[in-house]
């Protein structure tokens, strides 16, 4: 029986909730906006991932909405006419694409996607758009800057996927009207989307129970370096060799997540991670396996972005004009133009990581990762696995598939080893070996992994004394201490204290949304007279505190933490008497601020136990 599409409305033949879910799944997979229309170009679903420039401006006024409707209609008609997904520039300048929902050759609806750009926009063109729409050009350009820029080939891939989705919906409607295979089609659609969205979607390859490739996307071709572009229908063993790991996984229908696989293709060793999921039929029998693939180098890049393995600061972010800082600045330039290892020395809180990031960002490795490791913060038993990684099963609790170490994550970039003086001496030999050989071996593994890493280490300890006392290896010391940069403590930096204070006031004024006219002279006098045992970190803490509690237009000395503005000056006139209790309170407060509220470090510095410190805090009325 044939059905007349001109007499049928879209929502009469398909469940709206299912249509919405199908549309939304497509949008989440591709990251583009999506909306479904009926044959009269009326929206029937809720829009998803619509961007500000379209929602707030293009579609919120009559002229902009009219342009959108004209473009959407043309896109749907073009796709219907050509039988292909239509990719087009809408009247308002965005790149959109459309795919029709058909019934017996008649369009009964359409799914639209897009609201992206394929290249950097011509701002003059969009300023004219704003003027036509009657909106503020600056606000319009601000919204334009938030629009995703997607390569043309990725847009085409998304459009092709949209066409596959619309074709699947069209087929389902036809089957529903004929009362044939509706449930199977619906389940297959869900299974296809579930398999695609539950795994990493870089490269995609589907294999049936006979080990033959039934689908492969362009990314998988690229990752596996396949020269044969017609592999669908061919056995995996023929394409990748008889002993490839993928055939073993497909044969045994193994469910894996991020397993590391090495491929040998044309003399090239390709390191990638693969996840696999079985394809289940309606009766729960297995029809094959879906693989998702990523090259290890891209995984490293993703991990580095997620964990913040980037350097944000440059020399422009370092404030200072004192002689000690000028000398340090010169050495930053020397270190940035060198490949040698660097050792940063200075008291706690002087900004050693800031210097390390500046060296990295001014060096030839600035495009690579910057991975920071605090050697004192890592548990003794985990330092080796954190630095060098581990294989699956290396120890109880080891993550399935193993884990990349910090040196691997820092490959082609810089690793910053903070508080290197706290590294256990029995592990220092492993670090020395990496420095000498530029290779790492994961815990529980045998494979040697080459790494190209620049090392910057830092310490607030006297490493030479540690060498003399047998707590630090002499050979490692000389390997690390090629270029030594000493960062002076804040109390030795003179006028830098004023510069830093003004800089911090400006930063916190913006961050906290407070407009401050300045600071009283007594405020700066207290800042200058304080010894700053916690250095720049303590100064930052004090200024942020003052910016939070200030009530007037100007910062006053009473806005500073009590440990600073009530600090006893024993060199002033003898007539000013201060009680022992007050001295004790100020000492405890100052030490607590120095260590950012860390009870253990404060107690150790004061030479008392944690419980004793808690008692003193309570008696003295000091809040931790």
From TrEMBL:
Residue ranges annotated for the Sigma-54 factor interaction domain, each copy included: 318-548
CDD domains linked: AAA, PAS
GO terms for MF: ATP binding; sequence-specific DNA binding
Claim: Transcription regulation is one of the keywords in the record: yes
Annotated coiled-coil segments of the chain: 172-199
Annotated protein name in UniProt: Transcriptional activator of acetoin dehydrogenase operon AcoR
Originating organism: Desulfosporosinus metallidurans
Ranges for domain PAS: 189-245
Domain of life: Bacteria
One Pfam family hit: PAS_9
